Amino acid sequence: MRPTSLDDVAGQAHLLKPGSPLRRLASTDGAASAVSVILWGPPGTGKTTLAQAVAASSGRRFVELSAVTAGVRDVRSVMERAREDADLYGLSTVLFLDEIHRFSKAQQDALLPGVENGWVTLIAATTENPSFSVIAPLLSRSLLLTLQPLTEDDLGVLVDRAVEDPRGLGGRVVLAPDARSALVRLASGDARRALTALEASATLAEDDGEGLPTVTEELVATAVDRALLRYDRDGDEHYDVISAFIKSVRGSDVDAAVHYLARMIEAGEDPRFIARRVIVLAAEDVGMADPQALPLAVAAAEAVQLIGMPEGRIPLAEAVVYLALAPKSNASYVAIDEALADVRSGRIGRVPPHLRDAHYPGAKRLGHGKGYRYAHDGEHGVVEQQYPPDELVGRDYYRPTGNGFERDTAGRVERLRGRVRGGSADGA
């Protein structure tokens, strides 16, 4: 069912406007102005389809390589042949390289001479962010075109076409409206998934002798069994889901947080990775608003280590629900980052003499420890004394919020600062 021309491609309308790079590539007289492109998008959105449609429409020599099986020798062989065809016959070559992110730096380097000298017009496809997976020289010499997941309307067109087209089911079955909706919904923007599910469902449809077999919603559910997740633990979907998970917990949306937790678990994400993120969330986003959040997160991580999966999902869910519902404060996180920023910028200063180590021989002669006041001798265990270097006297890093436990500690922080800095004699 793969389209043979750009006009038959469903979806990606933003890349197929008149005069667009792909349209110029596909034109028979566009060789001189052709530019290499990198197609970036999720699986099943048409990257290979677009490349093959360009090749079929342009009339140029088309060579296809897969980064899974090709090596540097294969790339150099294509480049040598492309240079000879260009020099001897004036024939331009389109090189389609699938899954370019699987190529090493050395393998991608082998593409540069052909792209720089115009021996080939490269069409590379990747499901991973090219900014991280494609070398900078190649990225700068190519146009980056981003493909979007297909819409429900796009998928509906593909499914209807596959039912009627002789290359597909050729009208041998009837697709019930609810079954069509189910196929579109389960595909999650992936054309291959929609067509595979349609084909599997059609094989289950039985001829009852009263007309064409009908593909029903029940047959679709039986064929597909479950909604498969598009989730690559090394790709963008991984980062998108974990980002949404973190932001849902931070934003106190317990239901969304549990949803994203379930997506990661169902997709086979390493539960230890999830547990580590939960610990970071407890410290960074709940913090001192609920000091019990961090011990609970650590306990959940230890439980996952002890009992494994699938039972580990239960302590993970308990920790996630607790964190999502807990009061939030990033005051500790902000405090250490501000302190680090001061240190890195040179705001350090000498340790005050009365706080320096006075235990080694000769330290007292240098004045170390002289004038130090023992905190336990003071009322409430607090004495007036300078603790930071001179440059940082009066610098406040920790600013408690009014949330949760910090609502009660905020006043204590101010009282302690006043007593230590000499501005107040109130109790601690």
TrEMBL record:
- Matches recorded under SUPFAM superfamilies: P-loop containing nucleoside triphosphate hydrolases (SSF52540), post-AAA+ oligomerization domain-like (SSF48019)
Listed A to Z, the keywords are: ATP-binding, Nucleotide-binding
Annotated ranges, domain AAA+ ATPase: 33-150
Instruction: Tell me the first and last residues of the signal peptide.
Output: none
Q: Which InterPro entries match?
A: AAA+_ATPase, AAA_assoc_2, AAA_ATPase_RarA/MGS1/WRNIP1, ATPase_AAA_core, DNA_pol3_clamp-load_cplx_C, MgsA_C, P-loop_NTPase
A Pfam family per the record = MgsA_C
Q: Which family does it belong to?
A: Belongs to the AAA ATPase family. RarA/MGS1/WRNIP1 subfamily.
- This one is known as Replication-associated recombination protein A
Q: Which organism is it from?
A: Amnibacterium endophyticum
Q: What is the lineage of its organism?
A: Bacteria, Bacillati, Actinomycetota, Actinomycetes, Micrococcales
